[in-house]
Amino acid sequence: MVKVNNFHLVELFHGKTWAFKDLPLATVGQFLQYFLSKRKKNMTLLVGTSGDTGSAAIESVRSMENIDIVVMLPKGMCTKIQELQMTTVLDNNVHTFVVEGSSDDIDVIVKKCLTDSNYVAQHSLGSISSINWARIMGQVVHFFYGYLKLCENVGQTIQFVVPTGAMGHVTGKSF
């Protein structure tokens, strides 16, 4: 945490991909691998991304034996760094596709697959993106950390300002 004028900034960009999602997704990836290996099962994770979710999701599960990840990113709509973070990974369990349309278009495809319970069961599907509740639980830690670092007394009130795109991080604050 750093102080700038009268503000304290919780720096959440120190992970492998420089995304605030690195810590929570890494945690989810480790839990998934642990439980899948205990059960001797495999899972395929579907991820639609506009950039940072995809690269953070890939980093969280790359080289894991029981997990394959399929990441779809919109052609020409991610930063060059984000695109390279996703498309240059050579691990056998990582499958990245650049597709036409926006990230919203990709979300329609992913949600359609994941809301069909028979299809999910038949293909052992899941997700590790914003629609995975475990990721949101991991993000709640950021707010507790910031609160505990700043407050001298429990019960003290502070305000969080969360710059965000699709509201993925701010939802962690609502719990």
Structure description:
The chain has a 4-stranded parallel beta sheet with strand order 5-4-3-6. It has one domain: Rossmann fold (3-Layer(aba) Sandwich), CATH 3.40.50. Helix 1 packs across helix 6 and helix 2 runs parallel beside helix 3. The protein has 6 helices and 6 strands; from the N terminus they run E-E-H-E-H-E-H-E-H-H-E-H. It is α/β, with parallel strands linked by helices and 175 residues long.
Summarize the structure.
With 175 residues, the protein is an alpha/beta fold. It has helices at residues 22-39, 52-61, 80-87, 103-114, 117-123, 133-150, and strands at 2-4, 7-9, 43-48, 67-74, 94-99, 125-126.
Low-confidence stretches: none
Average of the residue pLDDT scores: 85
- CATH level-two architecture: 3-Layer(aba) Sandwich
Structural class: alpha/beta
Anisotropy-based shape: globular
Radius of gyration: 17 Å
- The biggest beta sheet, please? 4 strands, parallel
CATH third-level topology: Rossmann fold
Content of β-strand: 15-25%
Attribute tags:
6 strands; two-stranded antiparallel ribbon; single chain; Rossmann fold; alpha/beta; 175 residues
Strands, helices and their partners?
Layout (H helix, E strand, L loop, with lengths): L1 E3 L2 E3 L12 H18 L3 E6 L3 H10 L5 E8 L5 H8 L6 E6 L3 H12 L2 H7 L1 E2 L6 H18 L25
Helix pairs in contact: 1-2, 1-6, 2-3
